[in-house]
Specification:
Blueprint: H1 10-16, H2 29-45, E1 50-54, H3 57-63, E2 75-79, E3 85-89, H4 93-99, E4 105-109, H5 115-123, E5 128-131, H6 137-146, E6 149-152, H7 154-161, H8 166-188, H9 196-210, E7 217-222, E8 242-249, E9 251-252, E10 255-256, E11 259-265, H10 270-288, H11 296-309, E12 326-328, E13 335-339, E14 352-355, E15 359-361, E16 365-367, E17 371-375, E18 380-382
Parallel strand pairs: 1-5, 3-4, 5-6
Antiparallel strand pairs: 1-2, 2-3, 7-8, 8-11, 9-10, 12-13, 14-17, 15-16, 17-18
Helix pairs in contact: 2-7, 8-9, 10-11
Keywords: Aminopeptidase, Hydrolase, Metal-binding, Metalloprotease, Protease
GO molecular function: aminopeptidase activity
Family: Belongs to the peptidase M24B family.
């Protein structure tokens, strides 16, 4: 083992961590207002008279409201002009008031009422309504029955969310830097016989020690389980001379981290070592392909070209890369645009992506290195430094 892998224990590593001291500022009320105005311009250009944004990450983007969807309709309505409206159950008003970061009127509804009909009666049916594609089918169908026409608001919403502001980049940077510190601590507690569930609990506790709400997700895979991108449904025990794959993340003000490291616990086979080097090369090729104006799919192609030249694939054939090279990240852990064939979205400064062209040898092992970058005026910049070597998970 190196000093980066093994040799410590849970208590020692948690004691090394403390509440994060350098917190990025929260999104300002002025930025929320600017987001609404920018979306309003796109909405008008699309020919819509109003837009309905479902509760969840997109509503948080516009209002700061950190709620998740349920069967009860909570939504933001952005009209062509005037004050936005929030549709909300009456009994939730106080909770909403405490969190909302914009000026808004309310459309409040009691349990037996139809909130869509109330919105349309109170403010008149729009001639054309842009609907968030993440509205439930039932609510979307009800709006479609009560307005003149509808269109998909996905492009209107995504055009804003894809391009991160300096404040968003700072929050993303904090989340990713924190998770990398948790990764370092997790690597040091590894020992023969430790269970994956023990490592998962430690990672959650470590994220909490730093001041987050815990791990947003966590996957810990040993040996042959690394061949399955999202693991196997049982609790493994670590053995000497196995690959370790750990994928985890947290959220800061709703903004996500999502970092994967794959490294050797002891000595691994020549094929595993060669595959790690190839994975490193594919990740580097994807990063090097990034510059403004390049279609997203070309970044995916750059990673795949490295693998194809080495005799893997082609396409999604295994051994090789079974999924896209990367995904957008922000208030959702996976969000547009995507580094995948068929996504021709041009890269723009402020876009943020994972870079994770995983290589899988079916039923044997897999290697995934995942770091994130943001697009700059001239290329790309890493949020976290990629892994340096199979035996050295951290720069």
């Amino acid at each position: 083992m190196t000093t980066m892998i093994g040799g410590s224990d849970r208590e020692t590593e948690l004691a090394r961590l403390g509440r994060w001291s350098d917190w990025a500022p929260a999104i300002s009320r002025a930025e929320y207002t600017a987001r609404i105005e920018a979306a309003r311009t796109r909405m008008i250009d699309a020919g819509a008279d109003a837009m309905v944004v479902n509760v969840g990450p997109s509503m948080r983007y516009f209002t700061g409201l950190a709620w998740s969807p349920t069967e009860r309709l909570v939504a933001l309505v952005i009209p062509r002009s005037g004050t936005p409206r929030v549709i909300c159950p009456v009994f939730e008003r106080g909770s909403l008031d405490a969190e909302l970061q914009i000026e808004a009127e309310y459309v409040l509804w009691e349990e037996e009422e139809d909130p869509v009909a109330l919105e349309c009666r109170a403010h008149g049916p729009a001639t054309c309504l842009a609907l968030d594609p993440l509205l439930s089918f039932g609510h979307a169908r009800r709006f479609m029955a009560l307005v003149g026409s509808t269109l998909d608001a996905g492009a209107i919403i995504d055009a804003g969310r894809m391009i991160k502001s300096p404040q968003e980049l700072a929050l993303l940077q904090q989340a990713k830097t924190m998770t990398l510190e948790v990764h370092k601590a997790a690597a040091r507690i590894l020992a023969p016989g430790i269970r994956a569930s023990e490592v998962i609990r430690f990672i959650d506790d470590a994220h909490r020690t730093l001041g987050t709400s815990g791990s947003y997700f966590c996957a810990v895979q040993f040996g042959h389980a690394t061949a399955y991108p999202h693991g196997l449904p049982y609790d493994q025990e670590l053995e000497e001379n196995q690959l370790v794959l750990i994928d985890t993340g947290c959220r800061i003000e709703g903004y996500h981290s999502d970092i994967t490291r794959t490294y050797a616990f002891g000595k691994v086979s020549a094929l595993e070592a060669e595959t790690w080097e190839l994975e490193k090369a594919a990740q580097a090729a994807a990063f090097a392909a990034v510059r403004p104006g390049v279609p997203c799919e070309e970044v995916d192609a750059a990673a795949r070209d490295v693998l194809t030249a080495a005799g893997l694939g082609p396409d999604y054939t295994l051994p090789g890369l079974p999924h896209r090279t990367g995904h957008g990240i922000g208030l959702s852990i996976h969000e547009p645009a995507y580094l995948v064939r068929g996504d021709t979205t041009p890269l723009q400064p402020g876009m943020c992506f994972s870079n994770e062209p995983m290589i899988v040898h079916p039923e044997r092992f897999g290697v995934r290195l995942e770091d994130h970058f943001h697009v700059t005026e001239t290329g790309a910049a890493w949020f976290t430094e990629p892994q340096t070597a199979l035996e050295r998970p951290f720069a």
